[in-house]
Amino acid sequence: MVRAGLSAAKVTEAAAEMADEVGLDQVTISALARRFGVKDASLYSHVKNLRELRVRIALLGGAEMTERIAAEVAGRAGKDALVAFANAYRRFALEHPGRYAATQMQFDPEEVADSVALRRSVELTYGMLRAYGLSEPDLTDAGRLLRAAFHGYIHLELSGGFAHSRQVEDSWSRSLDALHVLLENWPSHQPPEAGGRDERMP
Amino acid sequence: MVRAGLSAAKVTEAAAEMADEVGLDQVTISALARRFGVKDASLYSHVKNLRELRVRIALLGGAEMTERIAAEVAGRAGKDALVAFANAYRRFALEHPGRYAATQMQFDPEEVADSVALRRSVELTYGMLRAYGLSEPDLTDAGRLLRAAFHGYIHLELSGGFAHSRQVEDSWSRSLDALHVLLENWPSHQPPEAGGRDERMP
DNA sequence: GGTTTTACCCTAGCGGCATTAGGAAGCTGA
DNA sequence: TCAGCTTCCTAATGCCGCTAGGGTAAAACC
């Protein structure tokens, strides 16, 4: 009897690939075991349960995504940085829809508490926004709106909300133009006298 | 033997309620049958399968949502309309997360082809944007960005992306300020000489 | 090199879910 | 009243997540 030679890492990588190919919700323990030519129960030596498997996919995907964004943004500022960030974000999501979907799960705080990628991605966003001259609390507000716009756009695109036409590219890049204008004209707000605003999550 | 007196409409309404309470993915045929005190198989007299049930929830939720938005936007224009639209959108999504989630499914084109609500919601958006002086192709681009921003924001909020603090309200209303500024300063584009742009979906 | 220990993978089995087939009992209209 | 339709049932299939417990390959130790 030859062993399959699995490991948590291999299982996660295969699961991520499978998620990109057939959708995150099609990634089941059974299907994954089938892909490895192994019985379902065998996978439980490497992964606690289905939820943990998905969290692993998310952490893997999140790390990869942040890495790619960081590489593209490096050395840029202002609109250059914004466009590089946004395009890297979108390209990753379109090329790896399963991994991307996984990053959108609801996590228990401690599941992602020690995620370097998460902290890094917040830093990247804030660095970009500071180049636009923003500071708290606008930093937080603008960051949220940017994340929302990016995610919302990709979500609509992935779910077929608009046709998969060449036009989406134009629309996307014009939205980036618009967001650039938005950040340059951000309606600033003074932080309130008393503290409390500082504790906001990004 | 007393009959339960079910109907497609009653089943859908109960399913929508259940989705709001426990999450769309917890709405199963079994759970719903249990709620009615009926066997699983009985529901198949009223609903073709699980997918159709979810589509029904989506259509119901979409209609309700559009209705509420339309009521709020009626008689307003400019920033008033934008804020009314956005707040009605967000409030519905937060009060009815299950129905809202259902509206985000991927549909076959003919499943929603005859949805009045969908057409109406597009009209509402476009009317709002025309009041900002936009015309095609900016109408389409701005509409997409708005939908993306709204959906993205609510999605982040619902999935706990940021803390459930009072601050989210501030952040949201400042994002609306920013979007208003954006629409007033939208970087316009000329339509290309030859046709083709007109066929874009919203 | 032989032995012990570990860790991997298996068989077996539980309960939950979606779905279908076919039958019985209520309701409706002639 | 009785035929016919609808609603609900029982029964069964197959897929899935997950657990318990056992055997063996591979690694660790002497």
TrEMBL record, chains A, B:
<protein>
    <submittedName>
        <fullName>TetR-like C-terminal domain-containing protein</fullName>
    </submittedName>
</protein>
<dbReference type="Pfam" id="PF00440">
    <property type="entry name" value="TetR_N"/>
</dbReference>
<dbReference type="Pfam" id="PF13305">
    <property type="entry name" value="TetR_C_33"/>
</dbReference>
<feature type="domain" description="HTH tetR-type">
    <location>
        <begin position="5"/>
        <end position="65"/>
    </location>
</feature>
<dbReference type="InterPro" id="IPR001647">
    <property type="entry name" value="HTH_TetR"/>
</dbReference>
<keyword id="KW-0804">Transcription</keyword>
<dbReference type="InterPro" id="IPR036271">
    <property type="entry name" value="Tet_transcr_reg_TetR-rel_C_sf"/>
</dbReference>
<dbReference type="InterPro" id="IPR009057">
    <property type="entry name" value="Homeodomain-like_sf"/>
</dbReference>
<keyword id="KW-0805">Transcription regulation</keyword>
<feature type="DNA-binding region" description="H-T-H motif">
    <location>
        <begin position="28"/>
        <end position="47"/>
    </location>
</feature>
<keyword id="KW-0238">DNA-binding</keyword>
<dbReference type="InterPro" id="IPR025996">
    <property type="entry name" value="MT1864/Rv1816-like_C"/>
</dbReference>
